[in-house]
Amino acid sequence: MANFSEKYSDAISAKVAEIMDDPDLIKKAVHREAVAALNWRVTKRFFEDAYATGYTKEDLARRPFLNIGPGSFRHSMWRTTDKKYDDASWTEVRRGVNQDPVDYYWDIYSAQPLGEKDGFFKVIYSSHVIEHLFPQDMGFLVREIKRLLEPGGVVRVVCPDAEKMANAYQDEDWPFFLNYLIVKTGRHKTSMSSLSKESQKEMSAKFLLQYISLLTDKRNPYCLNKNQCVNFLAKYDDIYQGFDEALQLSSREVNKTAGGHVNWFTADKLVRIFKAMGFSRIEVSGYQKSKVAILRDGRFFDRTDPEMSVFIEATK
User: Fold this and answer.
1) 267, 314 in Cβ contact below 8 A?
2) By C-alpha distance, which of 115, 57, 127, 82 is closest to 300?
3) What class has domain 55-159+265-315?
């Protein structure tokens, strides 16, 4: 999936050329880079201290921290696990880039346990993974997280916030969706002012269903166009019933290779799931507001779409 830089590569190249021709702009750009580099160095030192003071040398030597579905995340203190497609990880397939190997290749859909002993990890983190899982796979993952955590261990889960999206759609807040499509990712280069309200609604409806299901994926047996997405959502007085129906109409077999979004979560739904699995303390968190100090490192954690996400932490 192309990102903003790829979509606007020509415009970015033109802007670089403009900066290089103006000494004042070069000075400003270099100053910003120097500030960012110094901030990185100070932050790096701070969080190195957080590991050193929060955990024993013996613990740090065995790296008892796990990131499930890490994307490009790599950290010397952390172990990582990702799904493997043929000879490449999910991130390599999705983004077309080479990645350093992960510590464990693990397909949650297989319902096979991760190859690590019970209670090995002190902290587990997973960002924007669970929306790819069907209910049975989600149940398996939460049980496995509980098995892998030591008593008192903490898991932090981040995923798209279905409540924010549902509220935005019902309030006809189309800029909520179009900001992601036009500004953040550059998927659409059309300006919002050039779109009719109906077009804005259709784009928003398609985005919403794409974010919770396979109903806009042509590989799925049941696929909708933009106008049909609007009509589909209009059938339900309770929009969450529509979300459930979209989930039911999404093919698990297709998603074994498609890797799309197929599920939806709110803070309340996540609390219920973790409570049912026997976690002792479950809290709705916020962006960079973890109760675990090392998870407040914004260079590595909570980086994906925080404005559209829900954050939850549970203690074993």
Assistant:
1) no
2) 127
3) alpha beta
Helix, coil or strand: residue 55: coil
Domain ranges of the chain: 4-43, 55-159+265-315, 162-258
Distance CA 316, CA 314 (A): 7
Here the tokens at position 92 are 């390599």
The residues pairing with 283 across neighbouring beta strands, listed in sequence order, are 313
pTM: 0.91
Give the C-alpha distances (Å, rounded to integers) separating 29 from 21, 54, 62, 236: 12, 37, 41, 51
Instruction: Please report how the helices 239-248 and 226-234 are oriented relative to each other, as an axis angle in degrees rounded to 10.
Output: 120
With residue 124 as reference, give the H or E element that holds it: strand 121-127
Query: pLDDT digit string (tens) for 16-73?
Result: 888 888 888 888 888 898 888 889 899 999 999 999 999 999 999 999 999 999 988 9
Alpha-carbon dihedral 127, 192, 215, 169, rounded to 10 degrees:
80
